[in-house]
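Structural prep section.
Before we set up the soaks we want a predicted structure of the protein with alpha-D-ribofuranose in place, mainly to decide which crystallisation condition to try first. Input record follows.
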Amino acid sequence: MKKKLSIVNIAQSLNVSKTTVSFILNGRAQEKRISPELVERVLKYVEEVGYKPNSLAKSLRTGKSNIIGLMVEDISNPFFASIARLIEDRAYKNGYKIIYCSTDNDTLKTRELISMFRDRHVDGYIIAPPEGIEDDINSLLKDGMPVVLFDRHLPDVSTDFVEIDNLFSTYNATKHLIQQGYKNIAFVTFASGQTQMQARLQGYYNALNESGYKPVVQEIVFNQNEDLIMGPLTTFLKKNKNLDAVFFGTNHVGTCGLKVINSLGIKVPSDLALVSFDDYDVFKLFSPPVTAIAQPIEAIADSVITVLLNRLNTSSQHISSQSIILKTDFNIRGSSKP
Ligand code: RIB
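Run finished without errors. Recording the tokens verbatim:
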């Protein structure tokens, strides 16, 4: 079998130092003021001989793999998919590649995925954490691994996180429904102790408490299987015929809610007004278009990767953790106007 070429072989063949070849192959030629002519000569030779750097050997030698581990709830969910894509683009422009995966909000699966990322010597982590992995993340931090949480945080873990102002967003949207004259307003959400879901529920309660209206909350068990969301939703809407408005706590609950409302022949907004968290194409196409809280997808992705790159490019571990809270937009449409 043909012997694998090393950086030493290349350096000897070109009569150039091993260090210079290494800088060129690691994208540091400009930083090290290596001439474009020499860069061109090395890269041309490397291509001619078909040299493939051994990434694992490199990461063991340099302590860097230039890989970031990205863990989201469900990579097929448009919210997480759009953020993951933006993070991937920014990371690549800064010399990093992304490995991403879905936690399904499952603690054990998340634990296994963190172990997999450790085996791959990723340089840093971006995680939308399920509950129950506080110890695993604290262990990463103790080992000097930068970890940026997003979409929700873990109160018992002191690390950087990026969230939106969930509580104000649902408070404001519920106040809007009240100002439109709705009085029997339900909040339908996933049963979850995650910080963003708890804050959304609290914002709804705060708005209703101010107006003295009775809260009506339906918490559905988180599930990828839409039938297991639509079933309880159908039962709930059939049972609560006195409702005049429904607020869906996430895009996933909202899209299932629209399907159920259609199947029950409910007219929007005359029978039931609607608001949903997460602005989503289907909400704009529904008739009438659905009033929705839009999360700043680009700002979330940009904040997450900027914080992580700063950690990766700064040797000092003594930068205090950042908590970045971003604002949402409230897009009022026909589904919440009588
Ligand atoms: O499914 C995506 C939704 O759940 C978004 O609201 C996001 O914030 C996550 O919490």
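Observations: Residues 77, 79, 151, 196, 250-252, 277-278 surround alpha-D-ribofuranose (CB under 6 Å).
Flagged for discussion at group meeting.
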